[in-house]
Model the fold of this input.
Amino acid sequence: MGQTIDLSLYEPLHWLLGPHSTIYDQTGVVPTRTGNRVDFTAPRNAYRTADGHWVALTASTQSVADRILRVVGRDDLAGQPWFGTPTGRAAHGDELDGVVAAWIGARSREEVLRAFDAGEAPCAPVLAADDIAADPHFAARGTLVRPVHPVLGPVAMPAPVPRLGGTPGSIRRAAPSLGEHTRELLGLDADEHAALVAAGVC
Done:
């Protein structure tokens, strides 16, 4: 037995916005753009490292926020009364963001990730295309596939999603080249087609 998969283009992206619709429904407040930050907790952002890479972190719970501040050496801020709630931290978001950004900005990506890992505080690299190509997790998942293009040869591209256990998707061929099926579509024989090609029609 199969089932219909009804998946729109925009609904997964709507989920990424988090509680914006709920906030508006319950408060009448329209959430505004905040970049990689949110207005209901802090610290949360993407931060540039000393060697020009980016990392991302979020303090989604109190214990995570405590560990982040411990890693960046600011236990003094973690001891402030306002630090004990998400709304308190959000109200001091600029201050927290500055502290974390300064600490991360003085270190390489590798140093930052090692320190956060040792401190059991979540922090992940923001991967560019070259990082994705070399990442062992992406390789193990088969996130990239290399179908063979008739002109370009093997071409890296994202594997089909979602992954279906019974009928997995695959890339079976390259998209048609310009004019590849003109003869079939127009019902032309070889001479008629050659004449149109010579005339620059197709």
Remarks:
- The first strand starts at residue 44 and ends at 48.
- The domain at 36-129 is CATH 3.30.1540.10 (formyl-coa transferase, domain 3).
- The chain has a mean pLDDT of 91.
